[in-house]
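Page 42, continued from yesterday. The earlier attempt failed because a stray header line got pasted into the input along with the sequence. Redoing it now with the clean sequence only.
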Amino acid sequence: MGICENRTVIITGAARGLGRAYALAFAAEGANVVVNDIGTSLGGEGRDTSAADGVVAEIIAAGGKAIANYEDVTDWDAAGRIVAATINAFGDLHVVVNNAGIVRDRMFVSATIEEWDATMHVHLRGHFCISRHAVNYWRAKQKDGRDPDARIINTTSGAGLQGSIAQAAYSTAKGGIASLTLVQAAELGRYGITANALAPSARTRMTEQAFADKMATQGEEFDVMDPANIAPCVVWLGSAESRDVTGCVFELEGGKIMIEDGWREGPAVYKGARWAPAEVGEAVERLLAGRMPPRKVWGS
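This time it went through. Structure tokens are written below.
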């Protein structure tokens, strides 16, 4: 038996790249998998259901259980239908993996309001809608005296944790997702729900364009950037074994699992009275000299 035997998982953006790797790995560990994907381009245009159907066919051919779903996670009512379809098909829901996303690479001075809104819409609204409907189901389940043992697994990014040149909108959205995860973990534990986030580094449609040299590891003895490397940690987070882990952000790459240490209070200077504006500069110099060196913004 796999570690997710008889658990049911919704994975958004599951037709390609990381989402596909997650879907195959969950199914291999015994989970019922809902492959949600509307089949858009990298920029969010168009529709194509064949990619999601292909992943479902792979899972079924390997002896697993899966259904395809083509609803838009950014649509409130559609997100509710995804949850309802999942429960109708498999009788329960245990895990939501929020993986769907788009990217609109642009230097900040050239960014448009349309690109900004589209990026926030897919990442932030998309994470909210389906998770909110799932939480409604899990709360009702708990009130009925049944243990939800539920998981929300969000997708942030190194861009969201440290910034990335030419990705102001994407970085902002991904930083918001990291904060959302902390709030979900703090609020939802009482209902038997954990919330964690991933910052995966792997070869996808997004990263092949932005970091082509770094992603080209196919010919090496260990393909560090294979999306399948990320899946084992995601599957474990979706299993019953992870019930005591919540509010964490994991950076994953190749064979590395790293947990983020989060924002912490750094050096401080106390005067014991109100500062004069002319005094602040010297105080800030002392603080900068005493702090841990920050991680560089990607691409800088």
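Notes: The first strand starts at residue 8 and ends at 12.
Reminder to self: strip header lines before submitting.
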